[in-house]
Design brief:
The structure is a homodimer. The first copy, chain A, is of the alpha+beta class. Helix content of chain A is 41%, strand content 17%. In chain A, the strands form two sheets. Chain A has a six-stranded antiparallel beta sheet. A two-stranded antiparallel sheet of chain A has the order 1-2. In chain A, a hairpin with a 2-residue loop joins strand 6 and strand 7. The longest helix of chain A is centred in the middle third of the chain and has 23 residues. Chain A binds a DNA duplex through helix 3.
Chain lengths: 218, 218
Amino acid sequence: MITLSEENYLKAIYHLETGEGRAVSTNAIAEKIESKASSVTDMVKKLADKDFVNYKKYQGVSLTKKGRHTAINIIRKHRLWEVFLVDKLNFSWDEVHDVAEQLEHIKSPKLIDELDAFLEFPTHDPHGDPIPDKNGVISKSDKIKLSKAETNTYCKFVGVNDSSSDFLKYLDKHHIALGCEIKVLGKESFDESMTILIEDKTLNISKTVSNNLFVKTI
Amino acid sequence: MITLSEENYLKAIYHLETGEGRAVSTNAIAEKIESKASSVTDMVKKLADKDFVNYKKYQGVSLTKKGRHTAINIIRKHRLWEVFLVDKLNFSWDEVHDVAEQLEHIKSPKLIDELDAFLEFPTHDPHGDPIPDKNGVISKSDKIKLSKAETNTYCKFVGVNDSSSDFLKYLDKHHIALGCEIKVLGKESFDESMTILIEDKTLNISKTVSNNLFVKTI
DNA sequence: AACAAAATTTAGACAAGACTAAAAATATTT
DNA sequence: AAATATTTTTAGTCTTGTCTAAATTTTGTT
């Protein structure tokens, strides 16, 4: 049996591991999980005992196959619940995270598969992140950061990097919604801000914003 | 903030309190929650500190207004989730309990009201139990135990007393479903078994069964 | 009313998960 | 390569929720 706390650690380690190539540091986990490094050391030992992670003192942590599988399953649940909340219960994309953090820990062999079917097997959550399938396979995507797109190219907005409520509300305010078409009109070299055409309006966005929008060129 | 454990205690106390008229005993709570009396004493003190229950040493426990309100809200969540599982996710009525026990603890101001609306404001759960409304009001019903029904009366099956998986499967096997019409054909005085007509078939049921079926006379 | 039985509470212990402060190992700088 | 800074681990403590065993109160019986 896996505890709620253990699940949260695995999820954090998974996200850190896929960001960075190498073994995840104690400090990085502590920051992500908003705890202290000493607490992480304790928990990581427990996870290693249960064969969820590989751990050598002072050398960082990596997920085992079992650990990765478990983490992906939690992420699958999280994202499916997000789709449910938005599609069926009128939540907006900036409201779903905290509730999904709770729902992702519900344990039922049947529940998630039925939910998946009920939602008609969605492939992406409301923020554009891919939903792992039953076997833990995650579809790769050729999305890039908008900040990397060339001037005068057309692209489609397919996901966010930062899914904080504040950022999502900023996007709503400017009518930037998943699926929108964007034309890159130009970039300023001094502050790396960018001018884009979206929904027939020109808009100037900061580097921070363009770095947190994923697009596909079309 | 209320913990998961505290919520489970409140729910247990609520169910025991509405069964019996008087204050709930430590032992009764321990049995319901499958723990030990000493653990109950500890927890009950904490609940009293937080003004969820009234408690005097050796004198049993009763819910305060705040405690009852909290308990009813948990029961509302439990029953709404049960409806969701049965109506939308193809769970059968004997499969929902364990999952609903987990889902009832999800905290979100918005989630339950939206779920309620999504389910079109159901009044009863899949076992025939009433769903408290937003304000904690529970519809009273004139249901009686089938064992109390007179010979030769007609009635409608509206709820179960025992909602254990085994009992529910027994009912499924004999095609006894919520809403069925039942005619009481006779009772044996020596073992209090009962012969009924249901779905055009006669069936002999034990006292245990007739005691766990709620009906309304029609 | 006194005694036995049952129920309840207290005292002390334990596991999980977190923390602080101090020690140890690794990284970085000069 | 030594000195310093940073990171990580250890040691010891705390809280929550549970337990067992012993003590206490209440209840039931003669």
